[in-house]
Amino acid sequence: MKTDDKIPILLIGIGNEFRKDDGVGLVVARKIAAKNIRKVAVMEYSGEGTSLMEAWRHAQTVILVDAIASGGQAGTIHHFEAHRENIPANFFNYSTHAFSVAEAVELSRALGKLPEIVHVYGIEGEDFAAGAGLSVSVENKIEKLTEQIMQEITILLIRNHLIKLSPV
Amino acid sequence: MNDTKTANSKDKIIRVDYLARVEGEGSLYVKVKGGKVKDVEFKIFEPPRFFEAFLRGRLYKEAPDITARICGICPIAYQMSSSQAMENALGVKVSPGIRNLRRLIYCGEWIESHVLHVYMLHAPDFLGYESAIHMAKDHGELVQKALRMKKLGNEIMEVVGGRAVHPINVGVGGFYRAPSKKELQALVDELKWCREAAMDTVRLVAGFNFPEFDMDYEYVALSHPSEYAITEGRLISNRGLNIDVSEYEQCFEESHEIHSHALHSAIKGRGAYFVGPLARFNLNFDQLHDEEKKLAEEVTCTPPVNNPFKGIIIRSLETLYAVNESLRLIESYEPPEPSMMAITPKASRGCGCTEAPRGICWHRYTLDDKGIIQDAKIVPPTSQNQKQIEKDLYAYVSQYMHLPKDQLTWQCEQAVRNYDPCISCATHFLKLEIDRED
């Protein structure tokens, strides 16, 4: 696929909304999808790694949003530029999938198939039990995380000349 | 953390706190004292999921969508077993067209699940890599081939089921919409490529080195008079079991072991048994297509195969079977009309059982006169293999106690991975006991 044919920005919300805080990536993705931003495609995934790799195969820039269970304070927001750095092994491994988000990023890197730019946003969860709804600590940070991702999207759109700034 | 301690040459503790390359969260503990294995625990500690309780009070037709959520890798197994159980309860017989379409979507699941396990989770053991990521650095083409094969399995599930993970087009009585002939035909070229890739896979994995390790198993699988059983059949074993799926609870029992969140299954009066590819292959080999049988002979892997490490060859042969079966089903496909049978709820009880990639997945439901679920029981394959996994570890460590500790620990992990255990599936139920002093 030529670069011109690729999806300019693909945002993927990852998680399982029936495992409480694990659903935060999906909640954020739905908020951003509701804004209908041109040049930005939004998808939801369960976090099974090989399917993720397939999803981002046709994307120039990828933004992943997922829950984190690294033992940190609930609600803490993390941001990695995965095209520049490895994802720490203790992040994004909450998923019960044998082959999950971190493995998908690192396998894509090993195969030379990682999209040009990959931003990974994570929010520390505290309750991953079966059931719907987010914990208060996570819920309280949704707006902040959405805003932070929206700022990143704006920068990417400007940098890649996908939107024009109006003269002041 | 992995830890293998040696106090003296006859005492060892093998501990793997987080098993890698299995679905879900489990651990392994083996204690050796005085040169003898004293204790083996394959621990499942992923939080229990109580799906059987969720189902109570829900309408019969919700069961396929709810139970599909038990597993992202084998949702079809849950959808098919729950649908079959409901249909048996409500006296519904699906048309041959619907039956074939179910078999096709199940083949898609076998392909994606088997390929994931063979290449991403199990092959690194045999090739000496810590993970598929490490393997990809040296064998990039192999990994890319695996990803393409797995993608085809997902595509079959997507075309028939509406989406690859937790498909939404499967219902009690059939499908909400039957795919067109054109939609299925679009898969044929890739299936033909995958047929060759699956044959290459069989030849590749048959060349791996396998530890000498033969066990005397009781294999349990579905058996059907005219096909390699996937979506229906009677339950049989190599030790004389031959029952209708509704008689399951008369012959099998479950118990709660303190070290595991998942129930342990056993055959009443006999104990551990083995479900999954090795069981199907040994019991139903004659019903594979000629191509798989010839290839099995070529790589000298024909029944009886009692070495669980060779499960990787059987999974690869079953992948080829699923590809050939998909081609056959697509070639003769006519969209079923109607795509879903009419159903009238009534007070009833029914059982269903199908062959998930990892082995039989058994369901039982009781409904009231409005079709509301009163009671549910689900026995996934990993629960059934748990006891046998521990017996394998006991025998393996007894036989290979002399190995260097790192190698023995690795091979114990590998012995668990032989079963492709899906721990997420297994932990949907926990028996709670409250000890109260009044």
Account of the protein in words:
- The complex is a heterodimer of chains A (168) and B (438).
- Chain A has helices spanning 24-33, 49-56, 101-110, 136-139, 142-159, and strands at residues 7-14, 40-45, 59-68, 77-81, 117-124.
- In chain A, helix 1 packs across helix 5 (142-159) and helix 2 crosses helix 3.
- Chain A has five helices and five strands; from the N terminus they run E-H-E-H-E-E-H-E-H-H.
- Chain B has helices at 51-55, 63-68, 75-90, 96-127, 132-138, 140-161, 181-185, 188-206, 248-251, 277-284, 290-298, 311-331, 381-399, 405-417, 423-426; strands spanning 2-8, 11-16, 26-33, 36-44, 170-171, 174-175, 220-223, 234-237, 242-243, 252-255, 264-267, 348-356, 359-367, 373-379.
- The longest helix of chain B is centred in the first third of the chain and has 32 residues, at 96-127.
- In chain B, the strands form five sheets. In chain B, strands 1-2-3-4 form a four-stranded antiparallel beta sheet, covered by helices on one side. Chain B has a three-stranded antiparallel beta sheet with strand order 7-8-9, with helices on one face.
- Chain B has two domains: 2-47 and 387-426, no CATH class; 51-386, Cytochrome-c3 Hydrogenase, chain B (Orthogonal Bundle).
- Chain B is an alpha+beta fold and 438 residues long.
- Chains A and B meet through helix 2 and helix 3 of A and helix 4, helix 5 and helix 6 of B.
Strand line-up in the sheet with most strands of chain A: 2-1-3-5-4
CATH class of the largest domain in chain B: Mainly Alpha
Number of domains of chain B: 2
Instruction: Give me the count of strands of chain B.
Output: 14
Question: Can you summarize the main beta sheet of chain A?
Answer: 5 strands, mixed
As a whole number of angstroms, the C-alpha radius of gyration of chain B is: 21 Å
Shape of chain A: globular
Fourth-tier CATH superfamily name of chain A: HybD-like
Note the total helix count of chain A.
5
Instruction: Report the mean per-residue pLDDT of chain B as an integer.
Output: 89
